From TrEMBL, chain A:
Transmembrane segments: none annotated. This is Phenylacetate--CoA ligase family protein. Signal peptide: none annotated. GO terms for molecular function: ligase activity. Keywords: Ligase.
From TrEMBL, chain B:
This is Uncharacterized protein.
Amino acid sequence: MSEVWAVELEKLIHSQYAPFWNASIGDRIEREDFDFVQDFKNTFYQSKKKHTYMDRTGAIQFIRKNQFRSSFFRTQLEGLSPDDDFEAIPFTTREDLQLRITEIIPNDMDLSRMVVNPTSGTTGLPILAPNHPRAVGCYVPLIEWTVEQNGVVPKHSPQSTFAVQLCYQEKTIVYATTHSLAGGAKFAKINLHPLTWKNPSDIKNFINECSPQILTGDPYAFEMAMNMGLDYKPEVIHSTALELTENLRDKLKEHFQCPIINFYSLNETGPIAYSCSANPSWMHILPHDIYLEIVSNETGEVESTGNVGEIVVTGGRNPYLPLLRYKTGDRGELHYGRCTCGDHFPRLRLLSGRKPVYFMKSNGETVNPIDVARILRRNPHIYQFQMEQFAKKKFICRVSTSNEFTKLTEINEESGSITQGNTLQIQLRSELESLLGFGSEVQIDTKFPLDGKKQIAFINSYLDTLEKTQ
Amino acid sequence: MLEIRYYVKQILNFPILSVDFKTVSLDALWFDALMTKRKGILSPVFDRSLNKITNPDTRATHVLLTYVIFDPDSKIPEFDLKKLTIFLFETVPELCKLVHPYTEWTKDAERAEELIRSLFQALDLLPANETKVYFEDRYRSIDSRERLRILDQTKKAQERAKEILRQMKQKEEEEAASKYNRE
């Protein structure tokens, strides 16, 4: 980090309006990573210009390159020719990523540069996707290209702030850093939750002071920002992680008076697609080095253009996680052909994406489900979970767990009497009830299946019922 | 050449109790065995004396091999003596390190087959009713050296898997890399 960068970053960190920072994170880019990302950027921009995206031939080359490096690839391809039997290559599932990651990572990979970005996530099956700083660094040109499509010219200067990421959670990490791949431009992740600020008014002042070119975050965070009356006008908004409904997109556009980009990206795949500026309900495949297929859930066969099925990804640039027909768990349809927006990469229409779900405390406050996920994910006994609010104060937490978590033991109650129960369950229940507010009751159901499938992690049937009756 | 099972049977039926492996002259045995395969001057058969070999497994293995080659009914054709020399001085001691005691050759049909196939492979001989591809494939599947290599690899793979999981756990708690968005 150069001296100028450090001075600028210090100013941001020590601003009188700054939140209570609780983490220190850099981009971890080294010289060779920098060159790698520059090469990637050049190829990516050229590919966009020349409309050369990865097709099946490219995917086959990618597979051939990895089949003698990753024992997972070798096993999956046993007896198959990538050319002739492409569609017979078994899919990689979320369960594979969870249970066979050591086979997937290529044998010759040095593990010292591996990073694991802890995922907050909204699905009930955590995947610890290993990544490389250079692959994470490639997010910079990818994101910058999408904002350029909306008329924004990223300023690569240590005096400017390219992005501020918003979230609204009871607990999360907040930090500020500079991105060496963006010429030292600053970036901050902040939490809109009042607990993380000295004064509630500091939020607005801080954002105005660092005046980011773009705001990133999930629809939930943007909705909260709107409700809190945040009137900052960024050059563009980048929404990700959850489904952005048409209704909310229009509201955000009206409130923030800027283009809204919807971004489809998964922790395990990296960026996949972004919303078309001409027709925002469609998304264009973003990078030039991934191959998408749409696969029927019923037959497992590849669907032709215009048919809906599961999105399957091959390729990518994460050296720790080469993807071989990876089933994302998301559904959509794919179209080929030219587009009026100028990006002629295939168009994807996502179906039933990750809808935002909020839980409600009995006093009307909302609870971000990511806070629930944080509690459940850090519990080593819980493998998969689902949380449902089914009445004003009643919740059910379905979990698949270790035997220790389900085993009934004798518990001495305060009165001195002995009863059957499980202290791990009791602890979890009290932690969740404390998060969900006074009077809440959480029932623990340990019969949730561990089947490796992407499950809906958060359900609010109480709110659904309320909406229907209103 | 006859089918492989003929030679395997010879090894399995070798009259172990009739031989004193410690005192038998390997040079003399090889001389007799090769007399049936090569005409002309054979003395000395090899440029080094085999009688100096002291390892009991290696000595016994030599005896087994001469028994197969000497057999007039075995239909083993004439072969390159240089290839045999390399096999006896280089491969046999290596095999004997992996397969011991030598009685394993005579008790285990697969090991008997391995010994025969390793000899034939070294001499470029092909048993009856086998293609070169089949021969190589079968040999690889029972070759102790190959199996050891695979085992070694598996062991290494297991160690690497352990290391990956340990590092992932550690990295999860370390600093990640900053990105502009979340997923």
